[in-house]
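Supplementary Note 3. Input sequence used for the single-chain structure prediction.
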Amino acid sequence: MKVLSCQQMRELERVSVEQGQTYLGLMEQAGTQAARVIRENGSIEKAVIFCGKGNNGGDGFVIARCLEEWGSHVTVVLMEGNPTTPDASHMFALMKGVEILPFQDKAVLSRLAQADVAVDAIYGIGFRGSIREAFIPLVEAINQSQAQVFAIDLPSGAQGDSGKIEGSCIRADITITFTSLKPAHVLYPSADFCGRVETVPVGIPERLLEESSCVMKEIDRDRVADILPEREASSHKGTYGTLLSVCGSRGMAGAAIMSGRAALRSGVGLLKLAIPQSIYPILAGALTEPVFTLLYENRQGTLSRQCKADLLSALSGASACLIGCGLGCNVDTEQLVQALLAETKIPIVLDADGINAVCSHIDSIKTAKAPVILTPHPGEMARLLRITTAQVQANRYASAQQFAVDFQAVVVLKGANTLVALPDGRVFVNRTGNPGMARGGSGDVLAGMIGAFLAQGIAPEKAAMCGVYLHGLAGDRCAAKLSQMGMLPTDMIQELPALFLEFGR
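The predicted structure, written as discrete structure tokens, is reproduced below.
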């Protein structure tokens, strides 16, 4: 599914009207479709609909009319007086039998306390700034009420394109949006206020939507199914590539184990582990399938710069390289990572300490001889951009996109709704996953999966998409079985075979 900016959505509506639709017709369908979703989500004896003065309020008037006709008792609360747009005014006049109250009326709170459903139709996708101070007590009352809260297009208080919230915001159980997702539905913090997002059609031709530009696309199941390679009867281990994983250090053997096991469970033909000698007994006891290359280490227990020649030799025959899981970060590892970027001609995944190793040598990404995928968490992204983590989180989209374009790399910005930014400026958003995945080792699993897909010959951007989608889906399966509190990254690896079975792989 596409994610359209507010301006792109307006342009799509404009073109649709030019081709025979009417704005009034779009509003009628939007409100009717929203009312249908509300009714399908439970019994509604009493509903309170909070309406602004613009077209979002107009959608609310249509909802009110539909629910009243279907037998509900409906109260419309006018937040800013009578509607001011022609279409909203038209829909306001069509309401019959609906109680209408100004937001200052003392009866509003009693109606809200008795309501099964509260509908937020105050502001639309073009909202900027913060909610009026006079509205804040009512917003808080809506958020604390026992009613099921529906937001129309966006929760009021959320900014459509940035996902920013300045001050108060309505917290919806369900957000009903029209035609397509908007950035605020997938970017935080606003996504946290949207609840479940349902997208409904309003009459805009599908052809126009397909032809329209967008700021993001969602990574969905169909996209991943098209990417995952099928296993051919005549194939052999060489068919599915060789991944060289340069990971692990003294005290961080677990990262190498988890990334390695995830790679093996993700279909790679052969896994080669290049590791410090001292951790070999630990890894050999945990993983029987890899081929090991044992390398010199320094006093810190990380790979020594003296193993550069052996490390480059280990690249022979590999089809992809993963660098960084538990690697450690010091002068030696920085030099080794620089050497790999400068001389490796196979695609590279830089994770964790692999990313930290290039922060002081950032141009080495630009000059790399092969495609590079970086998998930073927000803190690592901040170090790459030389800004604060808070600045990254305030505009995750721009942070990932900027770096991907500037350094011609694929950027996987991890976190809630992980973003995959491509060198050509396109950005994809992943909506699988849950907070139970927020623990050490989860990133190692993801890196191993992406590395395995890359080794199998999947293009870097597609390998990243498959990795984040399936990683999140495995996390969701674990949460359903084991709880978000009790699940572990190793549990996600165990879910991968069942997932691939569902995809027929």
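The chain has a mean pLDDT of 96. The chain has 22 helices and 18 strands.
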